[in-house]
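Still learning. Any example?
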Amino acid sequence: MSARPEEMQLDIHEYMRMVGERARGAARAMARANTGMKDAALTAIAAAIEASASTLQAENEKDLEAGRQRGLDAALLDRLELNAERIAAMAEGLREIALLPDPVGSISGMNYRPSGIQVGRMRVPLGVIGIIYESRPNVTADAAGLCLKSGNAAILRGGSEAINSNQAISRCIHAGLAEAGLPAAAVQVIETTDREAVGELVRMQEFVDVIVPRGGKGLIKRISEEAKVPVIKHLHGVCHTYIDDLADLDKAVKVAVNAKTQRYGTCNTMETLLVAQGIAAQVLPSLAAAYLAAGVELRGCEASRAILPQINAATDADWDAEYLAPILAIRVVADLDAAMDHIARHGSNHTDAIITESLTRAQRFLHEVDSSSVMVNASSRFADGFEYGLGAEIGISTDKLHARGPVGLEGLTTLKYIVLGDGHIRT
């Protein structure tokens, strides 16, 4: 919902309170909306985005030019850009969300109790979701789509660098909502670039049920510290792959190379490789050759450098580093227990993997490593909502409540108990 001119004369506290009140009202309407209405809205928004492609690019160019004037680097400008391919992908993403099963209203665990009542649980929307993100304007469409399909109202606060792009996408969203007969306030994109809007949003307990931050560590750290509303988040991804001394060498090389080199700037990319001392001399030379051929800088412990004298020495800081770059820390460890001790001390509870042919050791790793995704003989790069069959994700959570791991549509809902009786009374 676009703010009217008189609303923007309000101070930021009054403006955000108005946004919150509208979202709370819209959340009730969204809870009533059936699957057909939600899917119709998603399809209509996709069509509006495609029809407005030239306008979206023109508005995006304003943001790009402002970014150039501010000295944004090439990587940030790339994330900010909306080209024809990315606009088409936004529309396609919304249509894909429309095809996903609707989690809302599903009932599970219905059982008769000795009293004669039936007790079960129903999946329902969370209510109002606040999403705070940076740079990529396509997140506006993605986040809106996921919130709508899961029956929630959304308050979206994008980065100031994408204000024109986000508002243009917002107009497409509202056109689609209107066509489907859903309230405009079901998705509100904050129109002010005032940073205090974020502070207000994360403290509006009476209007907002959960906050989802998407961005760098600085943004997530600030929100985690300031929020009075529950937050679904992960702060960083220090992901490990442990090559056990009972690993298949070909498997180990293939998986460990992919875990690091398939893509560098993602939270599920391996940052530390742990290798059992019993197999290190056999596997590290092949791995080092593959990594160096890919342009990866290797930083190793004393034992790994004894095998690979050409690599750099690791410091204590390397074991806690999320590089998001072609840099890899390597440590030789005594055994499985030592590997799990390292992960417990230096990991981020995101994604950790073991490469082994031992079922017993694999089961120990699965049970004892306390991360949101734990893998056996597979690349950490699979820790993703699409790869897990969720269709799409709003983010990844390393917390234990209420969602953990990739957060898809089901993660944007909760459960309530339902009780069915026929005049039953408690005696």
About this structure: The first helix runs from residue 12 to 32. DSSP finds 14 helices and 16 strands in the chain.
